[in-house]
Amino acid sequence: MDQRDPLSPRTRLVHGGTRRSQFEETSEAIFMTSGFVYESAEAAEHAFANDGSRFVYSRFRNPTVAMFEDRLAAYEGYERCFATASGMAAVHGAIMGLLKAGDRIVASRALFGSCLYIVKDIATRFGVETVLVDGTKPEEWEAALAAPTTLVFLESPSNPCLDIVDLEHVTALAHKAGARVVVDNVFATPVMQKPKRHGVDVVVYSATKHIDGQGRCLGGAILCDQEIAALLAPYLRHTGPAMSPFNAWVLLKGLETLDLRVRAQTAAALEVARFLESHPAAARVVYPGLESHPQHALVRRQMAGGSTLICFDVKGSGGPSKQAAFALMNAMEVVTISNNLGDSKSLITHPATTTHQRLTDEERLTLGITPATLRLSVGLEDPADLIADLKRGLDAAAA
After folding, report:
1. Tell me, what CATH number does 121's domain have?
2. pLDDT at 55
Protein backbone atom coordinates (compact mmCIF):
# COMPACT_ATOMS: atom_id res chain seq x y z
CA MET A 1 0.00 0.00 0.00
CA ASP A 2 1.56 3.30 -1.05
CA GLN A 3 0.79 6.94 -1.75
CA ARG A 4 -1.02 5.99 -4.98
CA ASP A 5 -3.54 3.93 -2.99
CA PRO A 6 -7.10 5.14 -3.68
CA LEU A 7 -8.06 4.70 -0.03
CA SER A 8 -8.86 7.77 2.05
CA PRO A 9 -6.15 9.20 4.32
CA ARG A 10 -7.96 8.03 7.46
CA THR A 11 -8.03 4.46 6.16
CA ARG A 12 -4.33 4.66 5.34
CA LEU A 13 -3.64 5.42 9.00
CA VAL A 14 -4.95 1.93 9.78
CA HIS A 15 -3.59 -0.08 6.85
CA GLY A 16 -0.78 1.89 5.19
CA GLY A 17 2.66 0.32 4.99
CA THR A 18 1.66 -3.02 6.54
CA ARG A 19 4.24 -5.80 6.10
CA ARG A 20 3.04 -9.22 7.28
CA SER A 21 5.49 -11.96 8.10
CA GLN A 22 5.05 -15.59 7.07
CA PHE A 23 2.74 -15.99 10.09
CA GLU A 24 0.12 -13.59 8.62
CA GLU A 25 -0.41 -11.75 11.90
CA THR A 26 -3.25 -9.24 12.37
CA SER A 27 -1.27 -6.73 14.42
CA GLU A 28 2.04 -5.61 12.97
CA ALA A 29 5.08 -7.58 14.13
CA ILE A 30 7.92 -6.06 16.14
CA PHE A 31 11.23 -6.96 14.51
CA MET A 32 13.54 -6.49 17.48
CA THR A 33 16.81 -7.11 15.68
CA SER A 34 19.92 -5.07 15.07
CA GLY A 35 21.06 -7.06 12.02
CA PHE A 36 19.97 -9.51 9.34
CA VAL A 37 21.43 -12.71 7.90
CA TYR A 38 22.24 -13.72 4.31
CA GLU A 39 22.10 -17.07 2.59
CA SER A 40 25.57 -16.56 1.13
CA ALA A 41 28.52 -14.20 1.06
CA GLU A 42 27.48 -13.20 -2.43
CA ALA A 43 24.01 -12.27 -1.15
CA ALA A 44 25.56 -10.07 1.54
CA GLU A 45 27.74 -8.37 -1.08
CA HIS A 46 24.72 -7.72 -3.27
CA ALA A 47 22.63 -6.42 -0.34
CA PHE A 48 25.21 -3.74 0.42
CA ALA A 49 25.67 -2.80 -3.22
CA ASN A 50 22.04 -2.48 -4.31
CA ASP A 51 19.36 0.18 -3.87
CA GLY A 52 18.69 -0.44 -0.19
CA SER A 53 15.51 -2.46 -0.61
CA ARG A 54 17.09 -5.34 1.38
CA PHE A 55 17.24 -4.85 5.16
CA VAL A 56 20.88 -5.02 6.24
CA TYR A 57 21.13 -3.18 9.57
CA SER A 58 18.48 -1.55 11.76
CA ARG A 59 20.37 1.72 11.97
CA PHE A 60 19.69 2.00 8.21
CA ARG A 61 16.27 0.34 7.90
CA ASN A 62 14.12 -2.07 9.89
CA PRO A 63 10.82 -3.74 8.90
CA THR A 64 8.79 -2.33 11.80
CA VAL A 65 10.27 1.14 11.42
CA ALA A 66 9.64 0.97 7.67
CA MET A 67 5.96 0.24 8.32
CA PHE A 68 5.70 3.38 10.45
CA GLU A 69 7.54 5.44 7.83
CA ASP A 70 5.43 4.18 4.93
CA ARG A 71 2.15 4.66 6.81
CA LEU A 72 2.88 8.25 7.84
CA ALA A 73 4.15 9.10 4.34
CA ALA A 74 0.97 7.68 2.81
CA TYR A 75 -1.15 9.83 5.12
CA GLU A 76 0.86 13.02 4.54
CA GLY A 77 1.24 12.56 0.80
CA TYR A 78 5.05 12.77 0.73
CA GLU A 79 7.14 10.15 -1.05
CA ARG A 80 9.52 9.41 1.83
CA CYS A 81 9.56 9.39 5.59
CA PHE A 82 12.59 8.98 7.85
CA ALA A 83 11.78 7.87 11.40
CA THR A 84 14.09 9.17 14.12
CA ALA A 85 14.66 8.54 17.81
CA SER A 86 13.03 11.82 18.89
CA GLY A 87 11.45 14.95 17.52
CA MET A 88 14.63 16.92 18.04
CA ALA A 89 16.60 14.29 16.14
CA ALA A 90 14.18 14.90 13.26
CA VAL A 91 14.62 18.68 13.44
CA HIS A 92 18.40 18.40 13.67
CA GLY A 93 18.62 15.89 10.81
CA ALA A 94 16.33 17.88 8.51
CA ILE A 95 18.21 21.14 9.08
CA MET A 96 21.84 20.05 9.29
CA GLY A 97 21.42 17.39 6.62
CA LEU A 98 20.63 20.13 4.09
CA LEU A 99 23.21 22.75 5.11
CA LYS A 100 26.94 23.32 4.65
CA ALA A 101 29.40 26.04 5.62
CA GLY A 102 28.61 29.33 3.89
CA ASP A 103 24.88 28.62 3.58
CA ARG A 104 22.13 30.88 4.89
CA ILE A 105 19.06 29.94 6.93
CA VAL A 106 16.07 32.19 7.62
CA ALA A 107 13.88 31.09 10.54
CA SER A 108 10.92 32.39 12.45
CA ARG A 109 11.87 33.71 15.88
CA ALA A 110 8.99 31.90 17.62
CA LEU A 111 10.55 28.47 18.00
CA PHE A 112 10.74 25.81 20.70
CA GLY A 113 13.91 26.39 22.75
CA SER A 114 15.83 23.40 21.38
CA CYS A 115 14.90 24.29 17.78
CA LEU A 116 16.15 27.82 18.37
CA TYR A 117 19.40 26.38 19.74
CA ILE A 118 19.96 24.41 16.53
CA VAL A 119 19.49 27.38 14.20
CA LYS A 120 21.18 29.98 16.42
CA ASP A 121 24.03 28.02 18.01
CA ILE A 122 24.73 24.73 16.23
CA ALA A 123 24.27 25.90 12.62
CA THR A 124 26.30 29.07 13.12
CA ARG A 125 29.08 27.06 14.77
CA PHE A 126 29.60 25.38 11.39
CA GLY A 127 29.68 28.57 9.33
CA VAL A 128 26.00 28.95 8.51
CA GLU A 129 24.46 32.42 8.61
CA THR A 130 21.19 32.55 10.56
CA VAL A 131 18.57 35.28 10.19
CA LEU A 132 15.56 35.38 12.54
CA VAL A 133 12.26 37.08 11.66
CA ASP A 134 8.85 37.63 13.18
CA GLY A 135 7.00 34.85 11.40
CA THR A 136 3.67 36.67 11.51
CA LYS A 137 4.99 39.66 9.54
CA PRO A 138 5.14 39.13 5.76
CA GLU A 139 7.36 42.18 5.32
CA GLU A 140 10.09 40.62 7.49
CA TRP A 141 10.03 37.43 5.43
CA GLU A 142 10.15 39.49 2.24
CA ALA A 143 13.17 41.49 3.45
CA ALA A 144 15.05 38.42 4.72
CA LEU A 145 14.34 36.37 1.58
CA ALA A 146 15.37 39.11 -0.81
CA ALA A 147 18.87 37.59 -0.59
CA PRO A 148 19.85 34.08 -1.77
CA THR A 149 18.98 31.57 0.97
CA THR A 150 19.48 27.84 1.44
CA LEU A 151 16.88 26.91 4.02
CA VAL A 152 13.78 28.30 5.75
CA PHE A 153 12.64 26.82 9.06
CA LEU A 154 9.48 27.62 11.00
CA GLU A 155 6.78 26.36 13.34
CA SER A 156 3.11 27.04 12.65
CA PRO A 157 1.31 27.23 15.03
CA SER A 158 4.26 28.23 17.18
CA ASN A 159 5.19 26.97 20.63
CA PRO A 160 3.71 28.18 22.95
CA CYS A 161 1.86 31.32 21.78
CA LEU A 162 0.25 29.80 18.67
CA ASP A 163 1.44 32.31 16.06
CA ILE A 164 0.43 31.31 12.54
CA VAL A 165 2.77 31.67 9.55
CA ASP A 166 1.36 32.03 6.04
CA LEU A 167 2.90 28.88 4.56
CA GLU A 168 1.98 29.57 0.96
CA HIS A 169 3.40 33.09 1.00
CA VAL A 170 6.62 32.14 2.77
CA THR A 171 7.16 29.09 0.59
CA ALA A 172 6.77 31.14 -2.59
CA LEU A 173 9.30 33.69 -1.32
CA ALA A 174 11.69 30.96 -0.19
CA HIS A 175 11.64 29.10 -3.49
CA LYS A 176 12.29 32.34 -5.35
CA ALA A 177 15.33 32.85 -3.10
CA GLY A 178 16.55 29.31 -3.85
CA ALA A 179 15.62 27.92 -0.43
CA ARG A 180 13.95 24.73 0.70
CA VAL A 181 11.29 25.09 3.39
CA VAL A 182 11.22 22.93 6.55
CA VAL A 183 8.09 23.19 8.71
CA ASP A 184 7.62 21.83 12.23
CA ASN A 185 3.96 20.79 12.06
CA VAL A 186 3.67 19.36 15.58
CA PHE A 187 1.10 21.78 17.00
CA ALA A 188 -1.16 21.57 13.94
CA THR A 189 -0.71 17.80 13.50
CA PRO A 190 -1.03 16.17 10.07
CA VAL A 191 -4.79 16.00 10.72
CA MET A 192 -5.32 19.75 10.97
CA GLN A 193 -2.69 21.04 8.53
CA LYS A 194 -1.15 19.65 5.33
CA PRO A 195 1.99 21.72 4.61
CA LYS A 196 2.61 19.90 1.33
CA ARG A 197 -0.53 21.51 -0.12
CA HIS A 198 1.15 24.89 0.41
CA GLY A 199 4.40 23.91 -1.31
CA VAL A 200 6.42 23.01 1.81
CA ASP A 201 9.42 20.81 0.99
CA VAL A 202 10.04 19.07 4.32
CA VAL A 203 7.80 18.45 7.34
CA VAL A 204 9.11 17.37 10.73
CA TYR A 205 7.29 15.91 13.73
CA SER A 206 7.91 14.98 17.28
CA ALA A 207 5.98 11.71 17.08
CA THR A 208 6.23 11.69 20.87
CA LYS A 209 3.29 14.11 20.87
CA HIS A 210 -0.01 13.49 19.06
CA ILE A 211 1.20 10.57 16.92
CA ASP A 212 1.82 8.45 20.01
CA GLY A 213 -0.82 10.40 21.89
CA GLN A 214 -0.51 8.53 25.16
CA GLY A 215 2.85 9.54 26.60
CA ARG A 216 4.49 6.16 26.04
CA CYS A 217 7.60 6.68 23.97
CA LEU A 218 9.83 9.06 22.02
CA GLY A 219 10.01 9.34 18.27
CA GLY A 220 10.37 11.75 15.37
CA ALA A 221 9.71 11.89 11.65
CA ILE A 222 11.00 13.75 8.59
CA LEU A 223 8.78 13.77 5.49
CA CYS A 224 9.90 14.85 2.03
CA ASP A 225 9.99 13.86 -1.63
CA GLN A 226 12.63 11.69 -3.28
CA GLU A 227 14.96 14.48 -4.38
CA ILE A 228 15.45 15.78 -0.85
CA ALA A 229 15.42 12.24 0.57
CA ALA A 230 18.50 11.48 -1.53
CA LEU A 231 20.30 14.36 0.22
CA LEU A 232 19.12 13.47 3.72
CA ALA A 233 19.60 9.69 3.55
CA PRO A 234 23.44 9.64 3.80
CA TYR A 235 23.42 12.14 6.68
CA LEU A 236 20.83 10.18 8.64
CA ARG A 237 22.40 6.81 7.82
CA HIS A 238 25.84 7.81 9.07
CA THR A 239 24.88 9.95 12.07
CA GLY A 240 22.51 7.31 13.44
CA PRO A 241 19.37 8.99 14.86
CA ALA A 242 17.45 5.73 14.27
CA MET A 243 14.09 4.95 15.84
CA SER A 244 13.90 1.71 17.81
CA PRO A 245 11.64 -1.04 16.39
CA PHE A 246 9.62 -1.18 19.61
CA ASN A 247 8.93 2.56 19.52
CA ALA A 248 7.98 2.28 15.86
CA TRP A 249 5.43 -0.40 16.77
CA VAL A 250 3.95 1.79 19.53
CA LEU A 251 3.73 4.70 17.11
CA LEU A 252 2.06 2.51 14.47
CA LYS A 253 -0.66 1.82 17.03
CA GLY A 254 -0.88 5.57 17.65
CA LEU A 255 -1.37 6.29 13.95
CA GLU A 256 -4.44 4.03 13.86
CA THR A 257 -6.36 6.41 16.14
CA LEU A 258 -4.59 9.71 15.34
CA ASP A 259 -7.35 11.19 13.18
CA LEU A 260 -10.11 10.32 15.66
CA ARG A 261 -8.18 11.57 18.69
CA VAL A 262 -7.04 14.86 17.21
CA ARG A 263 -10.49 15.76 15.89
CA ALA A 264 -12.07 15.06 19.29
CA GLN A 265 -9.34 16.97 21.14
CA THR A 266 -9.61 19.94 18.78
CA ALA A 267 -13.38 20.14 19.26
CA ALA A 268 -12.90 20.03 23.03
CA ALA A 269 -10.13 22.67 22.86
CA LEU A 270 -12.50 25.10 21.16
CA GLU A 271 -15.07 24.63 23.95
CA VAL A 272 -12.41 25.14 26.60
CA ALA A 273 -10.98 28.20 24.82
CA ARG A 274 -14.42 29.81 24.63
CA PHE A 275 -14.85 29.27 28.37
CA LEU A 276 -11.45 30.76 29.15
CA GLU A 277 -12.19 33.77 26.95
CA SER A 278 -15.30 34.46 29.00
CA HIS A 279 -13.62 34.17 32.42
CA PRO A 280 -12.38 37.39 34.08
CA ALA A 281 -9.30 35.69 35.55
CA ALA A 282 -8.00 34.82 32.06
CA ALA A 283 -6.15 37.98 30.99
CA ARG A 284 -5.38 36.78 27.47
CA VAL A 285 -6.54 33.73 25.54
CA VAL A 286 -4.84 32.67 22.29
CA TYR A 287 -6.41 29.83 20.31
CA PRO A 288 -6.38 29.62 16.50
CA GLY A 289 -9.99 28.46 16.42
CA LEU A 290 -11.27 31.57 18.17
CA GLU A 291 -12.48 34.51 16.11
CA SER A 292 -10.38 36.70 18.40
CA HIS A 293 -7.12 35.13 17.20
CA PRO A 294 -5.28 37.88 15.27
CA GLN A 295 -4.74 35.55 12.30
CA HIS A 296 -8.08 33.77 12.38
CA ALA A 297 -8.70 34.39 8.67
CA LEU A 298 -5.37 32.72 7.83
CA VAL A 299 -6.21 29.83 10.16
CA ARG A 300 -9.47 29.22 8.31
CA ARG A 301 -7.63 29.24 4.99
CA GLN A 302 -4.69 27.09 6.04
CA MET A 303 -5.91 24.72 8.77
CA ALA A 304 -8.80 22.30 9.17
CA GLY A 305 -9.15 23.16 12.86
CA GLY A 306 -7.65 25.20 15.64
CA SER A 307 -5.27 22.61 17.19
CA THR A 308 -5.36 20.90 20.58
CA LEU A 309 -3.28 23.64 22.28
CA ILE A 310 -4.43 26.78 24.07
CA CYS A 311 -2.22 29.59 25.36
CA PHE A 312 -3.53 31.92 28.06
CA ASP A 313 -2.38 34.35 30.75
CA VAL A 314 -3.69 34.14 34.31
CA LYS A 315 -4.76 37.18 36.28
CA GLY A 316 -4.59 37.14 40.07
CA SER A 317 -5.89 39.74 42.51
CA GLY A 318 -2.89 41.92 41.66
CA GLY A 319 -2.99 41.30 37.91
CA PRO A 320 -1.27 38.76 35.64
CA SER A 321 1.59 37.03 37.46
CA LYS A 322 3.64 33.88 37.89
CA GLN A 323 2.04 33.42 41.31
CA ALA A 324 -1.44 33.39 39.77
CA ALA A 325 -0.33 30.91 37.10
CA PHE A 326 1.21 28.60 39.70
CA ALA A 327 -1.90 28.85 41.90
CA LEU A 328 -4.06 27.73 38.98
CA MET A 329 -1.79 24.80 38.14
CA ASN A 330 -1.59 23.62 41.74
CA ALA A 331 -5.37 23.79 42.24
CA MET A 332 -6.30 21.62 39.27
CA GLU A 333 -7.30 17.99 39.81
CA VAL A 334 -8.05 16.64 36.33
CA VAL A 335 -5.43 18.49 34.28
CA THR A 336 -1.90 17.45 35.23
CA ILE A 337 1.33 19.45 35.15
CA SER A 338 3.71 18.28 32.44
CA ASN A 339 5.90 19.81 29.73
CA ASN A 340 4.63 17.21 27.24
CA LEU A 341 1.66 17.79 24.91
CA GLY A 342 -0.62 15.98 22.48
CA ASP A 343 -1.52 13.36 25.09
CA SER A 344 -4.93 11.78 25.65
CA LYS A 345 -4.67 13.31 29.13
CA SER A 346 -4.90 17.11 29.40
CA LEU A 347 -1.58 18.66 30.40
CA ILE A 348 -0.55 22.16 31.45
CA THR A 349 2.84 23.82 31.64
CA HIS A 350 4.38 27.16 32.53
CA PRO A 351 6.66 27.92 29.55
CA ALA A 352 8.73 30.67 31.23
CA THR A 353 10.03 28.23 33.85
CA THR A 354 10.10 25.03 31.74
CA THR A 355 10.19 24.75 27.94
CA HIS A 356 11.46 28.32 27.36
CA GLN A 357 13.37 28.80 30.60
CA ARG A 358 16.74 29.21 28.88
CA LEU A 359 15.63 32.26 26.90
CA THR A 360 16.32 35.69 28.33
CA ASP A 361 13.43 37.72 29.76
CA GLU A 362 13.61 39.97 26.70
CA GLU A 363 13.52 37.03 24.28
CA ARG A 364 10.50 35.53 26.05
CA LEU A 365 8.60 38.82 26.02
CA THR A 366 9.35 39.22 22.30
CA LEU A 367 7.63 35.87 21.75
CA GLY A 368 4.68 36.84 23.94
CA ILE A 369 5.67 34.62 26.86
CA THR A 370 5.06 36.38 30.17
CA PRO A 371 5.37 35.09 33.75
CA ALA A 372 1.57 34.65 33.67
CA THR A 373 1.50 32.54 30.47
CA LEU A 374 0.30 28.94 30.53
CA ARG A 375 0.12 26.37 27.72
CA LEU A 376 -2.75 23.90 27.92
CA SER A 377 -2.78 20.70 25.88
CA VAL A 378 -6.38 19.46 25.71
CA GLY A 379 -6.87 15.71 25.95
CA LEU A 380 -9.76 13.30 25.56
CA GLU A 381 -11.58 14.04 28.78
CA ASP A 382 -15.14 15.39 28.75
CA PRO A 383 -14.84 19.13 28.05
CA ALA A 384 -17.31 19.82 30.89
CA ASP A 385 -14.89 18.22 33.35
CA LEU A 386 -11.98 20.26 31.98
CA ILE A 387 -13.97 23.48 32.22
CA ALA A 388 -14.95 22.70 35.83
CA ASP A 389 -11.30 21.97 36.64
CA LEU A 390 -10.13 25.18 35.00
CA LYS A 391 -12.77 27.15 36.87
CA ARG A 392 -11.42 25.73 40.11
CA GLY A 393 -7.92 26.77 39.09
CA LEU A 394 -8.96 30.25 37.95
CA ASP A 395 -10.87 30.84 41.18
CA ALA A 396 -7.76 29.83 43.15
CA ALA A 397 -5.62 32.19 41.05
CA ALA A 398 -7.98 35.10 41.62
CA ALA A 399 -8.23 34.56 45.38
Report:
1. 3.40.640.10
2. 93
